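Summarise what follows for lecture notes:
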Amino acid sequence: MSFAAPWYLLVLALVPVAFLFYVGHERRRRRAAAAFAAPAVMPSVVRSRPGWRRHAPMAIYALALCVLAMALARPEATVAVPDGRSSVMLTTDISASMRAGDVEPTRLGAARRAGLRFLDSVPGEVRVGSVIFNDRIRGVNPPVLDRGEVRETFTALRASGGTAAGDAVATAVRSLERVRKRTGRRRAPGAILLLSDGFTTSGQDPVVAARAAQRKGFRVYAVALGTNAGEIEVERGGQVETRRVPPDRATLREMAEAGGGRYFATADRAELASVYEELGDELGTREEKREITAGFAAGALFLLGAGGLMSLRWFGRLP
């Protein structure tokens, strides 16, 4: 929390002054009471004493003064609000290794479900597009507000071929740049969310592509899906053989670092879904300061009213 007019907080210096004045007043009152009646006969003069209740209303008034001073200083809270300028490219690997069943039901099935949940979690003001790739680019949906085409693309995903993660990132960058030109916003925020599990087998260097994206103002978030135990069956020469397909975590981590984003390693469908939901909130919002003076002012009025009611209830008068 911050304050737009912090000099009003100097009013808080009045609180210890008021406290000292109150303590002095109480001492004078006690001396006057002692002069009126000796301590030995005081119980017969005053049958019951208010005790802590005598000071409770004043303590609440002091708290109200503190809250009111903070209200005058115009407090501001930093909140996340939907960023209507943002565009996100879902860049998804559909290489043959995505058939591995180490993630339920398969890596590709988990990616499909997570992508669809991502579309539901991103604020409606954010443009979302997609790049589908294996050893070449298989499909591109430009970032738009209508999620229908992207949703249909994810529903129809099929796994085959190798991996060209660098080409996929470069393709996503070109789509985001076209959005900037079309909207006239040269520095409109954009992000590339890359999900891949295999080693790059064709195309340009993926780390170089991620670094180029970052230079143009587009962050690259990389998600490595799968475990080292992932396997797929491959037909070769009429024979079916089993091949290990561990995710290339090292390269994906380098891509995220070079692209100014974050790296995630997920081993199951639930983790992947949580990552996508988290990124949906992060990529589709921006931090903004909102003034919350009204809340503090209302709190101060409530405390003043509470202190007054307590005094009237216990003593039949206001302090």
